[in-house]
Amino acid sequence: MRAPFIVIEGLDRSGKTTQTSLLHTRLEAEGIQAKLMKFPDRTTVIGQMIDSYLRSDSELDDHVIHLLFSANRWELASYITQLLEAGTPIICDRYAFSGIAFSASKGIPSSTPSPKLPYEWCRSPDIGLPAPDLVLFLDIAPERAKLRGGYGEERYEKEELQARVRGIFQRLGSEMQNETQRPVRPNWVTVDAGRERKVVANEVWSLVEPLVINRIDDPVAKLWSDKL
């Protein structure tokens, strides 16, 4: 038996950081020592390069920044597996799905469906990463997210881009839900993030609590292992 790996995804300003923090706090209050993680992890050498890019303090080719995001996750892949096998639940703010959604959404003008970075290319660097046991996608319309405080402070916080990102997330979710053979794919649940914070937090807890209490009897799976 091992601990679960929970990932919370969503558009910018969808409440991911708030909900991961609330979930972590609730686990601690229940006497469950969990690890809170966030990607990109801006504390590493690679993470610092990503941070400079996101703040628009530096420029990088789209292919390069995508690979840096993936490398940032691979930096901690072994650590994630070790924690889970040692019995420590992980609550993660963003993971590989964000990397795919944001990169595959770049350079798609309304007049053409051709992406600058193809979906399959964007996914390939993350194949083999530790797979979450549950992905909670906090769904909110970009026009509503735009009204929340701090919107527009980072490079990707533009309503048109966020709308395309939402579409890629929905594609990822559909693919995850259509895959029935575990442990190839993690479970994907869409949560309405447009509601009051406490209501969202209660739903998140109801989905996470059984996994934390009952634990997982499968080994840590690998993302898209059928592509290996």
TrEMBL record:
The EC number of this protein is: 2.7.4.9
Pathway noted in the entry:
Pyrimidine metabolism; dTTP biosynthesis
GO MF annotations in UniProt: ATP binding; dTMP kinase activity; nucleoside diphosphate kinase activity
PROSITE patterns with a match to the protein in the record: THYMIDYLATE_KINASE
Q: Which organism is it from?
A: Laccaria bicolor (strain S238N-H82 / ATCC MYA-4686)
Q: Which intervals hold domain Thymidylate kinase-like?
A: 8-203
Q: What enzyme category does the UniProt record give?
A: transferase
Question: Which residues are the signal sequence here?
Answer: none
The UniProt entry, under InterPro entries, shows: P-loop_NTPase, Thymidylate_kin-like_dom, Thymidylate_kin_CS, Thymidylate_kinase
Family assignment from sequence similarity: Belongs to the thymidylate kinase family.
Biological process terms from the Gene Ontology for this record are: dTDP biosynthetic process; dTTP biosynthetic process; dUDP biosynthetic process
Q: What is this protein called?
A: Thymidylate kinase
